[in-house]
What does this fold into?
Amino acid sequence: MIPYLAKRLLEMIPTLLGITILSFLIIHLAPGKPTDVLTEMNPKITPEARERLEKYYGLDKPVYTQYGLWLKRVVKFDFGESFSTDRRPVIAKIWDTKQPLVERRLFITFVINAFSMLLIFLIAIPIGVFSATHQGLFSDKVTTVTVFIGFATPAFWLALLLMMLFGIHLGWLPISGLKSMDYDTLSVFGKIWDRAEHLILPVFISSFGGLAGLSRFMRGSMLEVIRQDYITVARAKGLHERRVVYHHALRNALLPIITLLGLAVPGLIGGSVIFENIFSIPGMGQLFYMSVMTRDYPLVMGILTIGAFLTLLGNLLADIGYMLTDPRIRAR
Amino acid sequence: MNGGMKKSPLKIYWKRLRQNKLAFTGGVMVLVLFLVAAFASIFSPYDPNEIDRHNILNPPSLTHPLGTDELGRDIMSRMVWGSRISLAVGFVAVGIATLIGILLGSLAGYYGGWAERIIMRFIDIMLSIPTFFLILAVIAFIGPSIWNIMVIIGLTSWMGVARLVRAEFLTLKEREYVLAARALGVSDLMIILKHIMVNSLAPVFVSAILGVASAILVESALSFLGLGVQPPTPSWGNILTSGKDNIEIAWWLSVFPGLAILITVMSYNLFGEGLRDAIDPRLWGTGES
It folds into this structure.
């Protein structure tokens, strides 16, 4: 098991390198330059000043040299300085050690995504199992149609509808930000509740797409397993149906689901741009949106690299989970 | 498979699709949406860009069935014209993705070796990048024109097709008829095109149909964020943006365009999945759908 894990860890390095090379090329070869934004905002900037700026940022060098310099710094965990007027290091923008943990952008995005992932698995797996064990019955058809509708619902639209319903119409939930204006005056429990309240809609929205997809997948996986001979054997030897479903079938049907855990990460991270934009949440997605609008190359690269790293980490965790559950792989 | 052998596969597909009510409905809806987009001028009561200062943010009424927006433009007309954008983006993006996927997938599946290793690693890399981030960055840099959006979505969504085609090639290239063709000295290109590709087209077609649905979703999300189709050109996503801006006073701006996206995406998904079941010989004669 350990050699296998080590091999997987080593394999992550070339993939991560490939991702950064690809992202770097795309970002730097796209027409236009970050200095365009500066000159747009201040037309008085002379071509000479512009050249000086480009030289200062190292943008006058060939792309491969720039990548080499970037990589050299990143190995030391330094993503460079943001192009924005505050010139702060990229790391400090994403993970601001001067702020409390709950205010750091990466933490905020991570927490919301982690909750979403948890919610997806807690809800989707029972739905899938239920649907599969009631295959063809009316209840299965209702769930299947519901799942299909859910799968086709654009998450940002659902967000708007829920904001209208719970935020404006009923006034039950806050619809923007992470805490209320009077947050500082609240008691400890009041503060916790206030934060939780602000998280309900974002977490639900960001888990929504995965919810439908995963329960559909779970149903298919379960149906596949129930057809197998060993399930027939288990039933034939007189085991209780519940034991057959939850002990024999579910365990095997869960195996392919674990792999999805890793594959779901990029979708969740990508979705964070949308829901952080809608709910005005100061997370990494919102920062990314701002960074692409101002062509803040170091920040864009930093966030893309961290996003890719989290994805690979998700894949690795999925692999470990797979190993822990599947004895055939554990033996290798 | 009693007697079904004599019928052409297309006839069997058609018969099985007819039996699956949901899939058939999906197919009909796909057709209807096509007609609406094709004859947009007939289906829209007003000019989609006609500004009417006297009827700003009107709720749905007889004169404006789906209401008007903050400039007094008719929402129904804007949605009808917006369907053209969605379908165009969906189809062109999927066309690009499918071509790339077929090319790389068949190279990897047929030749194996280092070509396969490089291509599969490339796919792994593409799958590990949060694609939506990449799309956002590129669109923000090169500018949000409809052509750019089509190309970028296409360039970032070919991985599934490539994997599918590779898997098909891996199984098909060992078939006896392919080995026979090779023994007869048929060139690689002819084997790939005439003997293997033809037989793997059905699943590729299904994944393309499903791909249209997800491309439409991505386009609407981009337009909603202001990085997609730019106003005044109407698109479902950018109508929703004004829905968000007027969320407290104009529910119709948010409700209807989203419903249109939902119905379109669901139609393509139902049709695509039904088609997948219809062409899956393992399900023939089982009545399962």
Notes: Chain B has a mean pLDDT of 88. The two ends of chain B are 16 Å apart (CA to CA). Chain B has one domain: 9-51+67-288.
